[in-house]
Amino acid sequence: MNYRDSRRNCGPETATPIYVLKSPFNEKEEFLLNDGKRSDDRAPLEVRKMYFGVSNISQAKGSSYVELGSTKVVCGVYGPKEMAPSSIFKSTGQVLCEVKVAPFSSYVRRSPVPDRQVKELSMQVKDALEAAIILEEYPKAQIDVFLTVVEDSGGVLAACVTAASLALCDADIRMYDIVVAASVAWYNDRIYLDPSIEEEECIARAGERLATSKSSASSTEDELEGSNGSVTVALMPLYANGQVATMVMSGSVTAAKLQDGLDAALETCRKVYAIAKQVLIQRVSEAKLPEKLED
Amino acid sequence: MSANASPPIPSSNKNICVPGDRLCLAGNQCHAAEGTYIFNGYIYASRVGRVSTFQKNEQTFVKVTGLSGHSVIPEVGSLVTARVLTIHSQMIKVAILAVDDVTLHTAFRGMVRKVNVREHLVDKVEMYECFRPDDIILARILSLGDARSYEMSTSLPELGVVTARCEEGHLMVPVSWTSMKCHCRTENRKVAKVVPPNT
Question: What is the pLDDT of residue B2?
């Protein structure tokens, strides 16, 4: 990015931005290093450490904070409130989901105004939440979900869906189930759980190279064989014996590897669910519930 | 396949549930009350909170009490507290502040039509003699209305104006079912028959 930002001290015009030099996958795009571990010292089927917290924003009806490795997402839920004035009467509730990505969240500064990719992320999170919230209980009402990505280190959609679910539970919104999400990547026909941002970008670049090499009708020898892509699956583990709320996939994956990857993703979702449930139970046990219980 | 490896739950937390937890079989033994939903013949929790059962009409109901008490949007038949916003000849517009005894985070909009203000002589109602802007009223929700406002009614004796100020700003007390007074003047309102809570 070469434009001058007048609000900041950008350094001399001739300086090279550091991100050009940084990328570890620049030359040798290998996920697995020699000892069978990934670049951040994980096994292929190992997820990053995660942390969930709720009720962190006092002004919001419900809120949550999710960390997946270094990815950090904050969510605030407001409502149910009156729907924006419109001429259409809706007998079920509406969900307004807005994701904002902080300019400092990724290595290259992102615009604070949501771009097309972030808007698509908002729609994907909204799809997952609309499957889980019992909207029939909120006629003419609107539930606002605001997500802020503080640091994007891979698995952002998964973190956003889980954060939104936790915040909705904290806000006492009626739901069929808690939606949790996990992401899985395929690279060179192998499955990797919870890809980091470097791995996601590597797969995206490999996918682009594959696309351009196909269109230019030349086949180079060091092309990747087999599956190369990534998927994020959002799951409601208990509702109707397990329902996928939404699934976003990119890349090209062989049929044989697809099922293995999805199974791995769903299994990870169930592990995430166990942690999320513990956090919510803790929240209730620490809260003082309203005294009047007689009906 | 199922989620496991969670630490043992302390005994005081045994009745805490999260959305999606299956509570019991639905049927004659157990009915679903607030905070639950029925799916495939079972009752599931739909909110985070504590599970409890209660008896009503010799039947068992199971409910989940959440972190914030009862439901928070106006429903048909619920008693609401509202503030009068504007007065028109055929109706008044109000801002719904609380539903039953739960204060709303943000106000919803409602309206009371002329025919729903009182029970007798409904055609001869003068809106300006029944309500004034900024009065606090008790009303009952009749229906969801349209996209803009709920439909409400004050036609029962216990509904109507609870708190009002006179034109000069003094707090008024009721003197009859149709008027309230302060030390400087008397004004007409449709007064609510408020029953003290512990009777």
Answer: 37
Q: Which domain holds residue B162?
A: 68-194
B37 touches chain A (CB under 8 A): yes
Question: Given B2, B65, B107, which is nearest A293 (Cβ)?
Answer: B65
Note whether A199 and B95 are within 8 A (CB).
no
| pLDDT of the residue at B155 | 92
Question: Is residue A21 very low, low, confident or very high in pLDDT (cuts 50, 70, 90)?
Answer: low
Chain B positions touching A280 (Cβ under 8 A) are 18, 48
* Tokens describing residue A212: 């351009």
- The pLDDT value recorded for residue A202 is 85
Is residue B8 assigned to a domain?
Answer: no
**CA A110 to CA A104: how far, in whole Å?**
7
Provide the pLDDT for residue B194.
Answer: 84
Give Cβ neighbours of residue B23 (< 8 Å, ≥ 6 apart): B17, B36, B42, B43, B44, B45, B51, B62, B64
Instruction: Identify the sign of the CA torsion A55, A97, A277, A61.
Output: positive
Mean pLDDT (chain A, rounded): 86
Predicted confidence (pLDDT) per residue in A139-151, tens digit: 888 999 999 999 9
What would the two tokens of residue A194 be?
A: 């919870």
**pLDDT band of A205, cuts 50, 70, 90:** confident
Query: Quick check: is B31 in a domain?
Result: yes
Number of domains in chain B: 2
Of chain A residues 11-70, which have a CB less than 8 A from chain B?
Answer: 61
Instruction: Determine the pLDDT at residue A149.
Output: 97
Question: Would you call A217 an interface residue with chain B, using a CB distance cutoff of 8 Å?
Answer: no
Helix axes A156-170, A116-132, angle to 10 degrees: 40
Q: Do B3 and A270 touch (CB under 8 A)?
A: yes
Q: Is residue B58 one of the residues assigned to a domain?
A: yes
Cα separation values, B128 from A30, A36, B92, B119, Å = 79, 81, 9, 17
Contact, B23 vs B36, CB < 8 A?
A: yes
**Domains by residue range for chain A, with CATH:** 50-294 (3.30.230.70)
Peptide bond into B157 cis (omega under 30): no
Residue B31 pLDDT exceeds 60:
yes
Question: Which residues on chain B are in Cβ contact (under 8 Å) with A79?
Answer: 105-106
